[in-house]
Amino acid sequence: MNTYSKRKYVIIGIFATIGLVFIIKLFGLQLLDPSFKQFATNNVLREVVQYPARGLVYDRNNKLLVFNKAAYDLMIIPREVLDFDTTYLCRLLEISKEELETGIKSAKEYSRYKPSILVKQISPESYATLQEQLYKFKGFHTQSRTLREYSNKAAAHVLGYVGEVGVNEIKNDEYYKIGDYIGISGIDKAYETQLRGNKGVKKYFVDVHNRIQGSYKNGLDDIPAKTGKNVTSTIDIELQQYAEKLFQNKKGSVVAIEPSTGEILAMVSAPSYDPGLMVRRVRGSNYSKLLSDTLKPLFNRSLLAEYPPGSTYKVLNILIGLQEQVISINTHFSCAGPESVPIRCTHYHGSPVEVIGAIRESCNPFLWNTFRSILRKYESIADGYNVWREYALSFGVGQKLGSDFTNENKGSLPLESYYNRIYGGGHWNALTVRSLAIGQGELGVTPLQMANYCAIIANRGYYYIPHIVKEIENEQIDQSFKTKNYGKISAEYYEPVIRGMEMALDPGGSAEMSRIPDIAMCGKTGTAQNPQGSAHSIFMAFAPKENPRIALSVYVENGVWGSRYAAPIASLIVEKYLTDTISPNRKWLENVMIKANLLNSFQPE
Predict the structure, then answer these.
(1) Residue 26 pLDDT class (50, 70, 90 cuts)
(2) Which fold has domain 45-233?
(3) Residue among 313, 357, 310, 360 at smallest CA distance from 331
């Protein structure tokens, strides 16, 4: 055989080998490889996300506060859309043609091949009609989800609301996709991971008319959605509703805590809003209206507002004075005070007062002398100030308490460097910062901090971090909420100041009008200066005196004096919580507080 013949057979062999390889490959792809079958199947297969029902929220007495109601989204896959009757679809969806066109344009910009939401939160009633006619609209289908519903109109700031997930959430957590919902505020935000559950997927066969014909593989490939965990809050919803009723037509806040646990019994920020306004397709327009409201109903004053504590802070200053032994329970200071110091009492007591009397009468000069003595005890005023500041920090002032709310304000408790920057190092003294003696000046606390401060006094020296959730289904709450946190004041020094707080409600005391029959309540009034108008009315209290069950702060903006509005409101809340009723001889006071309208009556003084 010549060379030419050998080459011919080699070439034929090469081509035969290549052909055989292709034949084997084609055989494998067409008969053995299931992927092409899957691609073909995908042309008649639809994957529908199964959104889990969010966990339910209950009050401390197992009354349902937040539940779920079915709603539906209309989805669109732009590449599958054929010509359709836009007018008819708009009528079914109760939207304008412009809204439809905008939605389709946005869907195309996102992806022509992936499903995206065209119309959100269709009610069950509208869905029933739409589903019957959906076969006429190629490229459209629906998916179900649940929306939040509320059993009453109270506790909007506590419960929070749910909204569409943003770009940052999608970037930071792969669980979320465009169109998902997430807790925006309150409990729904703080406990999002527990409440949201886990999404599932159902696979369906659809016909040429885009109608579901059955489950793919009898559901073997489906991933079931996992419902979110139920949460029991610490709120007493009846107490919450009552406190909100007392605060109608007023601005301010109430925070009530169970001292023995740190559980928040009620948290009011007024004015508030109906949480039902923040669900369904009207949420966007309602949110805009609430956001532009000059009364700021979306602003949670309980956590975010920063107020001077006023005379309520005198109790802590006296405790520091006793601990530092610059005063004793027998120390007396004249109510008149020195002429050189512009701190006077709002009323003259006629004779020098001691610790109990100073709290009962809310004596400004006594507090000035105590505060000055604390700062002067040390080598420099700055050293004394730093000691004083450390006591305040131990009571939760000037720092976040670590509650389970995600947007807690830390308030204001200036560093030494703040005064050095303003006055120069070594060029300021007790007189320079004298307003701190009576809870004014640069000092700022939140209502939550003030209620916690009162709980420390009620407990004689310790507190549990205030929190809003009592139980989580099949899960432990944060153990830090069960840990005692101690202030820097010894237990022995609390009794005289508590006695003074109790006597503040006796005849002749600063809050005598708010005395509750047969209940030993201990309280302290406060009046905070307000450069924009009338002073603010403040009161903190706990009850009963022994084994206290409730400690609270009440702040009524522009309420003038602590005894005028804050103290009566606090006493009514305490009585309602401890006895479940208001005694007949105090009904007049309840009516006055409910009917009082302070929203349109503020005039600069």
Answers:
(1) low
(2) Penicillin-binding protein 2a (Domain 2) (3.90.1310)
(3) 357
What's the sign of the alpha-carbon dihedral 351, 355, 359, 365? positive
Among 603, 604, 600, 599, which residue's Cα sits nearest to residue 252? Answer: 599
Average pLDDT estimate for 585-592? 94
pLDDT tens for 37-85 read 444 444 567 777 888 989 999 999 999 999 998 888 898 889 888 888 9
Task: Report how far apart the first and last C-alpha atoms of the chain are (Å, whole number).
Answer: 123
Of 154, 85, 162, the residue nearest 120 (C-alpha) = 162
Q: In a 10 Å sphere around its CB, with 0-12 CB exposed, 13-18 middle and 19+ buried, how is residue 487 labelled?
A: buried
* Contact between residue 443 and residue 313 where contact means Cβ atoms under 8 Å apart: yes
Q: How far apart are alpha carbons 195 and 190 in whole angstroms?
A: 9
Which of 418, 411, 372 minimizes the C-alpha distance to 393?
411
Residue 38: what pLDDT? 47
- 232, 471 Cβ separation under 8 angstroms: yes
Q: What residues pair up with 469 in beta bridges, in sequence order?
A: 233
Q: pLDDT exceeding 90 applies to what percent of the chain?
A: 52
User: Where do the structural domains in the chain lie, given as residue ranges?
Assistant: 3-33, 45-233, 237-272+299-595
